Structures are given as structure tokens and as C-alpha cells.
Amino acid sequence: MKIVFRIWVVLGFCFLALPLLAIIPLSFTSGQYMYYTPEMLALDPAGYSTKWYTAVLTSPDWLMAVKNSLLIGLGAAAVATICGTLAAIGLSWAGTPAKGLWTMLILLPQIVPIVVIAGGLFAAFGDLRLIGTYTGIIIAHTVLAAPVAVITIRASMDRFDWNLVAAASTLGANPLYTFRTVTLPLVRPAIIAGAIFAFATSLDEVVVIQFIGAYQQKTIPIQMLIGLREHLSPAILAVATMLIGFALVVILLGETLRRRSLAIETPKK
Amino acid sequence: MTATNETTPGGTRRRIRPKRATLVGLALIAPLALVIVLFLILPLVRFVSLSVDNRETAQWLSHTAAALSDWHGEGLPADDAYAAIARDIRENSDSTSKLAARLNFFEGGMISLMRHTAAQLDTIPPTRAGFVAFHKDWGDPETWRAIYLVSQPLLSEHYLNALDLRADNPTEPLSIEKQPERQQIFQRLWLRTIMVALVVITLCTLIGYPLAFYLSQAQGFAFILGMGTVLLPFWTPLLARITSWQVLLESTGIIPTALAASGLIEGRVPQLFDNLFATIVVMTYVLLPFAVLPTYAVMNRVSPSLYRAALTLGASPVRAFFQVYLPQTLPGVVAGCVLIFVFSWGFYLTPELVGGPGGSLIGNQIAYHFSSSLNWGLAAALSGLLLFTIAAAALVLRVLAPRQG
Hints:
The complex is a heterodimer of chains A (269) and B (405).
Chain A: H1 2-26, H2 38-41, H3 51-58, H4 60-92, H5 99-111, H6 114-128, H7 134-158, H8 163-170, H9 175-204, H10 207-212, H11 220-229, H12 235-265
Helix pairs in contact in A: 1-12, 3-12, 4-7, 4-9, 4-11, 5-7, 7-9, 7-12, 8-9, 9-12
Chain B: H1 18-49, H2 55-59, H3 62-67, H4 79-91, H5 96-104, H6 110-119, H7 128-134, H8 141-151, H9 157-162, E1 165-167, E2 176-178, H10 186-217, H11 220-235, H12 238-249, H13 254-262, H14 276-301, H15 305-312, H16 317-345, H17 349-355, H18 362-371, H19 376-400
């Protein structure tokens, strides 16, 4: 029984990890195609090269996609994190009425199918003249990324000890000063984690951009989509490998910060 | 602006009146709530309402609608209806092509009929005999069925079409019959979408539950490695994950090549990509973390002592698992299943890229009717049905697990 469980668990982890690990060596191929050549399997150095990474990093198409992803991701993450931090504080504030309703409203962008959201935004943005604009995409990504920021920051706020705020105000600090010197430093790791996760959410998004974006706004995933449909080359594997690296950074930074913020504020009871 | 004492949860309310605390709380939530209402709720309401709201098209057929008010939906209408549609086409000549496109959603061939009729309108006598003599389709009751539907400000036909149904008599919306055989596509797709969701839920639970259990027991490096393995695909952008699976599964890809080389399979290696199999495998892969993480969170809070007590009291490990541990961890499993159902229900990009025609789902039809066939009413009706089902699933979750955040 135990051995069956062990094997099942190992297979489960392999299912999660192997598809990603399989493309990493392949991205270093010296060939033109997306499969392992005999030279690669024989570990012949001639089978490997970094030429596809050079190709990506010198391609105007990919550099434009990176620039757009950064611009849109940073813009959306900034707005989502600011609004999300305020909302997360509001949701843990004792005086707020109908918290369940607000939580549901804020989580809605995660629940509604993305293709339905894309349809709705395309119809609405047509009237607002936001189709094919950075503003439109940043607004859309703010809506999509905000729930992620709120969930992350709220988890930390729920463990926040409001007695500290009460103590500060008893000592004469005004609310803004209290926020700046007491609340913010304690919640800051969660806010940074929320911002990182919000950025990652924007970087991942492709369906809405496909509907409301123009060619000039193409991001990394859109450029990958073009690659998958048109000229399949190992360059796309190099990009995918770099995105796996990006995910690793998100996990190391984001999850560490999130865990730290949860650990610090746990009230001692 | 000095006191916020009342914010202590359950604490004393000394200096600030509760009313002001309410306002502060609402003001904090307001910016995000406003963004979501303006740029999600309102666009969605407007989009989904396109499934029934036909006022724009109806205004181009105002005279026809009046002339058809005493038509009972059977046979051909009287001469005045032909005169009225001639007048509507003449008065709204700018919109004829749009009108024709919308008529065509309900009756094939209407685009060409309307184009020819509009071009020759001055030569056609505005009577039934004149129109039928000009083109035989004007003598087809199906033509008038479509015109009647599109002349009404409210439309239920898109919802019926989304379920492969149609109104037999357009003047009686409840006279529902099945679409002709060759036009039936949606019932099969709804069934396929439900089937895929159930299979993916089952696979994710079967793979995810043991993984979550392992994570809840693991410590140190084993935990970090295990958790990292669950989180890495979770945070890797979807397009990168789909690329990986394409490289693995497509006919020249790693798995078919390896299968052929290994000699495990005689003859041709079966197709693994661009079909339903690929849709199910990749969806399971994408949604697996949503089975593992909620279950892990619940398992982390469940003390193993009850399970051990059951063992001490003589229960077999299997019985102790099914009667003690599984019920304790069930809320996590249910939460995971509902999440996976809600996500898989609206999947679009994954089936689009790995599923081919045989592996496409309702979400793909929404995108198709939205951006290719431009039948926004039908896309909106399909979206409305998706949202309705998701709302029902959310309600089920609330009833089953009312204390889950």
C-alpha cells in the first residue's frame, strides 16, 4: 500500500515537472527543429548552442514584446496593488459592512471565464475608443490582476494585530502617520508579494489582449502565440525557458515574502 | 483625525461613531470596487444583454413589425407586409447589409436575398406576388420567420439556438422544437464541455489528493522541492506550458518519437495532439495545482491524532482513512473540485491551441461567434449560459461549505 502511494506521488510530481524540464535542454539545440537530435542525445557539444537565445535577444519583434510586457505589467501591477492594498485593508477593517459581498465583487474577475470578459471588454472599449490602446489594456489587466493582489495582501491583513494601530493612536499618532510607521512596515512584504503576483498575472494574460490589443501592443505571450501558429522555431523554446526562470523568481521572491509576512504578524496568543 | 480605536476587532467603540468607521471602510474599498464595476460588471451586463436585446435591428424594421403584428407565424403574410419591408429597406438603406447579416444568423441565404432585393427594389412590385416572382425565397415561410424574429425588440432565439433549439412559430416563443439535424452543434459541445470538466476534476483529484497529503507530511528539503514542483507550473505563463506540451505531444514531438523508437507500439503511433485527448491532458496539467493547494491547506489544519486514534481502536488503515481522514479533509477536496469546474467550464485558450476541432469546447464557440462569424447575440447567449452555470456552482459551494472563505 505504502509503495503504491509512493509511486503514485512520484508519478504525480513527474507529471507536473517533466513537461517543463523537457524543453529546457531542447532550447539549447543547435538545430532548426523542436526535437532532440541524435547529437543532443549523445551529449555531443556540437548538438548544443545558445544561438536561439541570441536570436531572441536580438530580434526586434521579441524586444518589442518584452518592452510591451514590462510596460503593461508594471502599469497594471502598480494600479492593482495600490487599489488592492486599500481594498484589502478595507476588507479587514472592523467597520466595513457587507464584507462578503465586496469580497465576491473583487474575486469576480477570477471566476468569470476570460473569453467572456474579453468579449465584454471588446464591446465596451469600442464605444470608449480604448481598443488598441495601452490605457485600455492596462485597465483590463488591472481588473484581472487586482484579485491576486487583494488575496495576497488580505491574508496578511487578517493576521494583522489592530491593537498596534489602537496603541499608536492612543499615543497621539494620526491615522496617516500610523499607517506609514506601523501598518505599512508590517504589511510591506505582503504588498510587495501582491505586486509581484499581479505583475505575473498580467504577463500571463493573452486572451484579452488578443481581443482588445493592436499589433503595436503585442506582449511576450502574444508573440509566442504568433510563433506557435506561424513559424515554429526553437526560439520559442528559449522564451519558454526564460519564462520558467521568471516563474522561479516569482516563487522565490513572492512566496518567500508572503510567508514571511504571515509569520511576522501572527498575534501571539 | 486622531482616533481609530474602534477598529480593534470586537474592541470597544470609544471615540469614533460607528457611522464614520463604516464610511472609512467603504472609502478604502471604493477605488477597486469602482474599477471592477466600471470595467467588468457593466461591460459584462451589456455584453450578455446583447443575447436578448434586439432593439437596434428592430428599429430598421419598424414598418414590417407593424404589418406583421396580425400575422400568426404560419404560411406567408399578406401584401402589406411585403410593402412594409420594401419601405423599411428603402428608408434604412445604410443598414441593409447589417440587417441582412443578422437575418442570416437565423436563415441561411438571407444575405444574398436581401442584397438582390435592395438592389432591384424599384423594379419589384410591392406585393406578395411581385416579391415571390422576383425571388422564390420570398415565398418561403422560413424567410418570414427570420424577418419576424429580427423585427422584435426582444429576442429569445439566441438562447434557443445556443441549445440547438428554435421556436417553431416565431410569434409564439414557447413553441420550441429541435434545430434541423445538420445545424445541431451545441448540445454535443455542451455535453463535451461537461464531460471534459468531470474527467479533469476526477483526474486532478486522483493525482492531487495524494500529492497534497504528501506535502502535508513532508518537511525540510522534501517539502520545499515538492511545493516548488506544484508552484512552478502554477506561475509559469500558460503559453510556455502549452508550448511544452506541444513539443511533447505533436506527431514529430518527444513522446510519439520516443514511443516509435522504443518499439512499444506496433505500427503507427496514435495521434496525441490536436484532439480531445490533448485537451484533457493539458487541462488536467493546468488545473492540477488548484486541486493540490486547497486540499493541502485543509490537511495542514487537520490533526493526524484522530486518524491515529482510529488505528489504535482497531480500524484498518483503509477504514480509518475512509471514515476519519477523508471526511475531515473533504472540504478542501470540494473547494478544489468547484474551482476546477468553474475554471474548466470557460476554458478557451488551451483547447484552441492543443485540442483541434475535436477537442474544442463551448469557450471556443464564444470566441468564434464573437470574432469570426460576428454573431454577438449567440456569443452573448452562450456566455450567459456559462455565467449562469458558474453562479449555480458558486451557490452549491456556499451550501456545501458555508464556512470556507
